[in-house]
């Protein structure tokens, strides 16, 4: 579920009136997503998405996220464009939460991506990286290599209740990644959570990228590694090299990899797998009683991590040097 906050009808109508989008006709809560409360708003001017930012989003980061979407949309990246209210602001307050309205994107996310989808994703990701190059703001990645150990510390004592030996395996992986994590790779704005449920398609054509609320400034190839993890494994968690090759080749046709990025890819993929293993483990151990949210399986990412540990070069991902 992702409607944590109920909004009174008159407050919603007053909020919508701040924008030049005609009268409010209807508003429905959206069940998907886990972080924020989202509503589909219909007005005389069309459909929009209203988001109320819940506690995991730091309000200080909102100008970065909203400014980034505005910047990318102006450079032909199909992403939600924040609406600007009559007072010139993109951010308002509704039901005591920071709130914004963005444009609605057509398309659906793909439950079982095929190589064609992975190729479209690769090209879209590279285009996003290029389009973000002149975005003037920056945001530190709050879930990068130096943040993983403090995050793990919160779950270490209970990790073995999820899988025997998990605490030790994560601790060893952390040691290895902290020692070897590459610095100095080409960096800029990355999405950092470009999973299939954040990418809309119409047929095999990519129609939109959403959910920029983990976006930050970090290595481009790390974003690619996140996508390799999220898009290129089968439901039985076997690695699909055809999908990886499609993703990576489409990416590099738009933005070629440097030799250092090429070499770093297996390590970055391990790091990306560990990042999602750790956030999922944290959430798995803290499901609030009675919550309607289904936590995501941390062990899926343990298996992906083990795969990347067995990889010695980017050619295992279908990439020729
Ligand atoms: N601009 C948009 N156009 C169309 N639908 C959208 C848009 N933004 C969000 N949605 C719908 O709302 C759902 C939830 O959005 P989103 O993934 O941003 O929520 P969240 O709670 O922040 O996410 P998550 O749990 O993935 O971090 C999406 O799956 C999609 O169905
Ligand atoms: N994409 C994340 C959750 C939302 O950010 C995951 O699958 O763990």
UniProtKB/TrEMBL annotation:
Belongs to the pseudomonas-type ThrB family. Pathway: Amino-acid biosynthesis; L-threonine biosynthesis; L-threonine from L-aspartate: step 4/5. This is Homoserine kinase. It comes from Polymorphum gilvum (strain LMG 25793 / CGMCC 1.9160 / SL003B-26A1). Its EC number is 2.7.1.39. SUPFAM superfamilies: Protein kinase-like (PK-like) (SSF56112). CDD domains: HomoserineK_II. Keywords: Amino-acid biosynthesis, ATP-binding, Kinase, Nucleotide-binding, Threonine biosynthesis, Transferase. The keyword 4Fe-4S does not apply. It catalyses: L-homoserine + ATP = O-phospho-L-homoserine + ADP + H(+). It is an enzyme of class 2 (transferase). The keyword ATP-binding applies. GO terms for molecular function: ATP binding; homoserine kinase activity. GO terms for biological process: threonine biosynthetic process. It holds the Pfam family APH. Residues 27-257 form the Aminoglycoside phosphotransferase domain.
